[in-house]
């Protein structure tokens, strides 16, 4: 079998503040992403999505620590890798796109400077060759008039164009994996749709694997091949995106889908999930969703649930629920 572009196994991320004991904010996260595929990680704020995203390329900072697990990039274990070796891979074989492009772009440097420096940090390449490679990267990311945009300053670009520039920076060294953390959340719907189409095309044409972090199931429907649904630091359901969204097996996934405005009848009050997720380190003894679950049973509050293979489905799926919904 071919080595996946990214394989994460039993990832456990802790947070320690003010000398207090370390608390687990993310527990037991596992997934694989093949070349040219898009994996979406979805869940509410506080579910552990962004902590997972930052941990993949090693960009987490104290008080956040990776306590255990494995992150393998093209078969190479990243956890425990020397900092210099990790820096060589970061930006060349694995790259990240963050939500706000203005935090990723230096306001006093032109677009071409960002791209050329990204290239020459990893490749011995002359200026003109790097500039041409930068122009091609902008074109691949869907930036119109890429030669002219090389000369632009960040403040001269719209939010959508700035995000495309950041995606071009991630693409410019042909990485195996791009991690995108809420990369289209701040954009209007039209621009968001254009960027999602470009990402699907890039994954298909270049073979780059994407890990797309989002809270928006509408984005998942448009972009993902597979999906991991996270709640309270754990994966509660995962499998092919089409199957999970069409027939969710976990009540939390069902509740998230019920909150999508496009799925609700016009003129009715928008649905919401009652209550709030538990805080990290204050996990209940049973199922972490039990207090908010409309289908809770007595054993749900006492017995921890494990991520198990869902029986009776045509495609491999897993769910963390004692009483999963029938597909």
Would you give an account of this structure?
The chain is built from eleven helices and twelve strands. The longest helix is centred in the middle third of the chain and has 18 residues, at 189-206. Strand 9 (226-231) and strand 10 form a beta hairpin. The chain has helices spanning 49-55, 83-89, 101-104, 111-120, 127-140, 146-149, 159-171, 189-206, 217-223, 241-246, 251-258; strands at residues 6-15, 23-33, 38-42, 64-73, 76-77, 94-97, 177-181, 209-214, 226-231, 234-240, 307-309, 318-320. The chain has a single domain (6-93, 175-320), classed as 3-Layer(aba) Sandwich (Rossmann fold), CATH 3.40.50.300. The two termini are 29 Å apart. The mean pLDDT is 92.
At a glance:
With about 325 residues, this protein is α/β, with parallel strands linked by helices.
